[in-house]
Design brief:
Elements (H helix, E strand, L loop, with lengths): L4 E7 L2 E8 L5 E5 L10 H9 L3 E5 L15 H14 L5 E6 L3 H10 L4 E7 L11 H4 L5 H6 L3 H6 L4 H12 L29 H14 L2 H5 L21 E6 L10 H4 L2 H7 L3 E6 L6 H4 L1 H15 L1
Parallel strand pairs: 3-4, 3-5, 5-6, 6-7, 7-8
Antiparallel strand pairs: 1-2, 2-4
Helix pairs in contact: 1-13, 2-3, 7-8
Protein name: AB hydrolase-1 domain-containing protein
GO molecular function: hydrolase activity
Organism: Arachis hypogaea (Peanut)
Amino acid sequence: MDEIQQKFIKVDGLNLHIAEIGTGQNVVVFLHGFPEIWYSWRHQMIALANAGFRAIAPDFRGYGLSDPSPNATFSHLLTDLLAILDSLAIPKVFLVGKDFGGRPAYLFSILHPERVLGVITLGVPYVPPGPLHFSKLLPEGFYILRWQEPGRAEADFGRFDAKTVVRKIYTLFSRSEIPIAQENQEILDLVDSSTPLPPWFTEEDLATYGALYEKSGFQTALKVPYRSLGEKINLPSEAIVKVPALLIMGGKDYTLKFPGIEDSTKAEKAKKLVPNQEITFIPEGTHFVQEQFPAQVNQLILAFLAKHT
């Protein structure tokens, strides 16, 4: 990883951390999910740089090495992305978003289509912003409902060090079932601390994540995405993603069991919102498909970039 350079860009009074590798004219910006940071894209960044692309992965405000931002919103992530591109004098990019990082990728392409050559998302199809009805469709113990409750996740996470919290969430999110706790059980209690890490996630990887979440804490991570999911974003009346797009899903990703999500990955429905989208499934893939099957994901990304460069 030593060849990946680390730098900071001043945005809105905050120092935002970005990782960067490669010098190609075509630029790809990677947007992480939770409980991830820029490091979750390590395999893709090196592969793209070797293929002649410039790869950039920021830590969102409040995450990793970026400055804290307890009042962060999805709107901030969009303005931060624009500021990063302007600061680096990058006119157009490909955006790659994972998990909740897919939302700013899609929305940025709608708000600034002249700056986006294409969008690739992993684990999350495009769902237009609006009210969510999880409480009507899923039990009280559904992890997002629990983490939206002020103080609940803070107390749950606060029982462990940051490394253990990441370990438990990575293990939990690597399963194919939606994390749902019993009435008198906390979400992190769904994973025993002695459960082995997934084979594709090393103790060294965990130590890297743990150290960075030890620095940042989980305050912003709980605010964005979980407590900002219903945020109103000012979009054009026709909130359609018109740029070329690729959705990569793991066939065993637990998010496919969210109400309506599997339907959103089917070509007929997806074409209404993302008319130029290809959809690919990696059958054995889980929620962390880019770390679990990096060679396959890299190949899919590079093929998409070659088609649209």
